[in-house]
Amino acid sequence: MIRLVAADLDGTIIQDGNVCDPSVAETLNRLKQRGILFAVCTGRPVSSMRHMLAGWGIEVYTDYIVGSNGGEVLDISTGEMTVLKALSVDTVRDIIDLYEPQGLIPTLYTGSTIRAEKITPDAVRVAERVGAGLEQGNIRELLKEPQAKYMFILEPENMEKALQFAADHPDPRYTAFKTALDLLEMTDPSLDKGTGLAWVMEKEGISPEEAVAFGDNSNDIPMFRQAGCSVCMENGSEDALLAAQYTAGSVDENGFAEWLNSHLLEE
Q1: Which of 72, 89, 136, 193 is the most exposed, fewest CB within 10 Å of its CB?
Q2: How many degrees, rounded to 5, is the angle at CA 104 between CA 102 and CA 107?
Q3: Which residue in 138, 147, 152, 140 sits closest to 93, CA to CA?
Q4: What was the pLDDT predicted at 50?
C-alpha cells in the first residue's frame, strides 16, 4: 500500500511559465482524503517555496518540502525545519572563484528572489521560469551564511562543457550536477533528493515499497532509487527515463495527475 507520494516540481508538476494545472491540486486532495502523504522534492530552497505552493493551490495538500536537492526538509504540519548538511561560506567562495571564470553566473537565493552577479537573458529566463524575483548583486559580499546548495546560471549550450569541467576538477567538499538545461548546482557530496526523501520516510516509518517518486531530470534519480516505485515524465532527460520503472505523460499533458488517477487512485 502506498503511503507517500514524492514529486519534483519543475518539469514534473509545474509547467513552463511557472504554471500548476488545477488537476494537480484535485489529485493531491484525493491523496489526502486517503491518508497518503505528499512531499515536494525540489532543487529550490525551502525559503522560496511556501508562498509558491500556496499560489499554486497545493500547500494545503503538502506535508513535507525537501528543498535544495535534499539539503533541507520542512515539516509543514509543525513548521520544523531541518538542515541536513550545508556548504560552508569558504567552500562556496572557492566554488565561485573556480567556476565564474568559465562563464557561469554566480547566484544567491534570498527568500523568493534570485540575486545574480550579472543580469543576462539566461538569468531572466531562469527567474521567469521559477517565478522568482531577479536582482543584480555582488554575490561574494552578499554571502554571509552556509548554503544548503549553490547554483550557477549558464547558457544551455555550455552545459556539457561545464559538466566536463566539474569532472576534471573534483573536490571532496561538494558535488556538481545539472538540474536544468541552464542550471549547474553544488551540494555536500553526501546529499541528494534521495537523502532528503529517506529522512522523511524514516521519520514517518515508511518503507520503500510504500513510496512512489515522480521526476524528470538527472537529480531526481537518487529519489527514484529510494522509493519502491519510480515514475519519470515523458519530457524527462534520457538518464532519468532509463532509471525510472514507469513513464507518465508529459508535464504539459498533466501526466502526474493522470498517472496517479489511473494507477493509484482508480475507483
Answers
A1: 136
A2: 145
A3: 140
A4: 85
Residue in this structure with the C-alpha cell 522523511, named with its chain if needed? 200
Nearest to 155, CA basis, from 98, 103, 107? 103
Q: Nearest CA to 246 among 208, 209, 214, 201?
A: 214
Considering the domain 4-84+191-263 in this protein, what is its CATH number? Answer: 3.40.50.1000
- Give bridge partners of residue 81 from the DSSP assignment: 74
The three cell numbers of residue 171 are 573536490
Cβ atoms of 211 and 229 closer than 8 Å: yes
Look at residue 171 in the predicted model and tell me its pLDDT: 97
Task: Look up the pTM and report it.
Answer: 0.83
- Is 177:219 a contact under the CB 8 Å cutoff? yes
Q: CA 213, CA 67: separation in Å to the nearest integer? A: 15
Query: pLDDT band for position 5 (50/70/90)?
Result: very high
Task: List the domain boundaries for the chain.
Answer: 4-84+191-263, 89-187
In whole numbers, what is the pLDDT of the chain averaged over residues? 95
- Which of 3.90.1170.50, 1.10.3720.10, 3.30.1240.10, 3.30.420.140 would CATH assign to domain 89-187? 3.30.1240.10
pLDDT at site 267: 56
Quick: pLDDT tens for 45-77.
Answer: 898 888 889 999 999 999 999 999 999 999 999
Burial class (CB in 10 A: 0-12, 13-18, 19+), 267: exposed
DSSP one-letter code for 49: T
pLDDT at 101 over 90: yes
Q: Residue 259's closest CA among 226, 234, 222, 238?
A: 234
